[in-house]
């Protein structure tokens, strides 16, 4: 009798066993200690910062990675378990050593911060383009899960602090934050083109809406929606809008104003947003009386915090300010979220945001804000009461 042939299942099991044996010898951390990646990177790349760039080592580190070394180490601690527990066999440097967690985080953060090509970033670290791609996405996945606590709607005690700061700075009582939206421009393959993603400037883009506090820290974001939408439509598609409408957001105690009126908790937003009881927009007219003009000025100053936050975000993490080359529309929201998380982590860890890297112009340069004509009667009353309160207290506010 001829010998029996091995079944396909047995062959597959045999291959799996061999694969497992091969994987088992891959160390979770490099057995041979990798030379200090930062020292090598610094000496190799510090000249590229230009003669006007920083010379101090700590400043050079922030120049390339946007964070202090202390905050960088904290970020490494957040993602370490994920990056160590999934060691891809291809992640080795030119000397054959597995990349350390610190070097993986540095590669990913440099890619996000510079917006340079994967080839260019790889060359500065001595790794290939595919390694930069793998490392960056693994970092994004890990931080998205491990840093969620850095982007949550604030507790009631924290919200009281935010409201106090808005009132002290702008004379706007019970204000919980400023809201704005920005376009993240991208290039889509021909097979994916859609009018939905084509915005008013004929760019393919994805929208990002953010609510920020007095520190330009993100309190809530929504992204993943096509840039062809209006900001008012984006707002109404957000979970935040739905929570406000059912009384689960901006539902704290009302404040007494001058004259006995009350103002509930609210946000300040631009003319692209509807005027709602919890969202105060500026007055619109070519011939406004001084009271309303003055209110628009202080309202604009408060709302500019959101504008500045987006300018800082896109300036710090320049991957968001360059045309994304054929991004995976399922991955891009994660990249956007992680950049917002990084901005919050910098603030939460006591690092100063670097104003010199912020965009010098508007974060959506060239875009004109679509004016929303929706006016809620209760929102209109709230704005009138707020404007009158500010007018009656302006001398006290300006002197404080």
UniProtKB/TrEMBL annotation:
Q: Superkingdom, according to UniProt? A: Eukaryota
GO MF term list: chromatin binding; hydrolase activity; metal ion binding; nuclease activity
Compartments it resides in: Nucleus
In the UniProt record, which is one GO cellular component term?
ESC/E(Z) complex
Which cofactor(s) are needed, names only? a divalent metal cation
Entry keywords, A to Z: Hydrolase, Metal-binding, Nuclease, Nucleus
Q: What InterPro entries does the entry give?
A: HARBI1-like, HARBI1_dom
Keyword Cell inner membrane on entry: no
Domain (DDE Tnp4): residue spans on this chain: 179-344
Q: Does the keyword Nuclease apply?
A: yes
Q: Mention any Pfam family matching this sequence.
A: DDE_Tnp_4
Name the family the entry cites: Belongs to the HARBI1 family.
Put simply, this protein is called Protein ANTAGONIST OF LIKE HETEROCHROMATIN PROTEIN 1 isoform X2
Give the organism the record lists: Cucurbita maxima (Pumpkin)
Native organism taxonomy? Eukaryota, Viridiplantae, Streptophyta, Embryophyta, Tracheophyta
């Amino acid at each position: 009798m001829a010998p029996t042939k091995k079944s396909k299942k047995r062959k597959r099991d045999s291959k799996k066993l061999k694969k497992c044996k091969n994987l088992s010898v891959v160390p979770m951390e490099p057995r041979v200690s990798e030379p200090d990646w930062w020292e090598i990177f610094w000496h190799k790349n510090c000249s590229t910062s230009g003669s006007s760039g920083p010379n101090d080592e700590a400043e050079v580190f922030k120049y390339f990675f946007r964070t202090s070394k202390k905050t960088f180490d904290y970020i490494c601690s957040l993602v370490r378990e994920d990056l160590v527990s999934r060691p891809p066999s291809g992640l080795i440097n030119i000397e054959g050593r597995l990349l350390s967690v610190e070097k993986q985080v540095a590669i990913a953060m440099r890619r996000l911060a510079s917006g340079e090509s994967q080839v260019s970033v790889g060359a500065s670290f001595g790794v290939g383009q595919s390694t930069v791609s793998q490392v960056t996405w693994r970092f994004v996945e890990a931080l998205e899960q491990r840093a969620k606590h850095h982007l949550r709607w604030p507790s009631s005690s924290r919200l009281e602090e935010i409201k106090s700061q808005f009132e002290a700075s702008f004379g706007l009582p019970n204000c919980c934050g400023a809201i704005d939206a920005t376009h993240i421009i991208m290039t889509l393959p021909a097979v994916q083109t859609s009018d939905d993603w084509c915005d008013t400037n004929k760019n393919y883009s994805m929208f990002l809406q953010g609510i920020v506090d007095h520190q330009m820290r993100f309190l809530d974001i929504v992204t993943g929606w096509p840039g062809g939408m209006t900001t008012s439509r984006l707002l109404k598609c957000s979970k935040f809008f739905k929570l406000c409408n059912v009384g689960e957001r901006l539902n704290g105690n009302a404040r007494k104003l001058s004259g006995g009126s009350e103002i509930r908790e609210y946000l300040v937003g631009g003319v692209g947003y509807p005027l709602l009881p919890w969202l105060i927009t500026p007055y619109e007219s070519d011939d406004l009386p001084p009271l309303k003009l003055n209110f628009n000025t202080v309202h604009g100053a408060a709302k500019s915090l959101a504008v500045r936050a987006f300018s800082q975000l896109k300036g710090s993490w320049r991957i968001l300010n360059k045309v994304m080359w054929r991004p995976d529309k399922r991955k891009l929201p994660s990249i956007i979220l992680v950049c917002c998380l990084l901005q919050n982590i910098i603030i939460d860890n006591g690092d100063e945001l670097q104003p010199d890297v912020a965009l010098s112009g508007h974060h959506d340069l060239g875009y004109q804000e679509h004016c929303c004509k929706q006016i809620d009667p209760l929102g209109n009353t709230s704005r009138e009461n707020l404007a009158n309160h500010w007018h009656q207290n302006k001398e006290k506010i300006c002197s404080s």
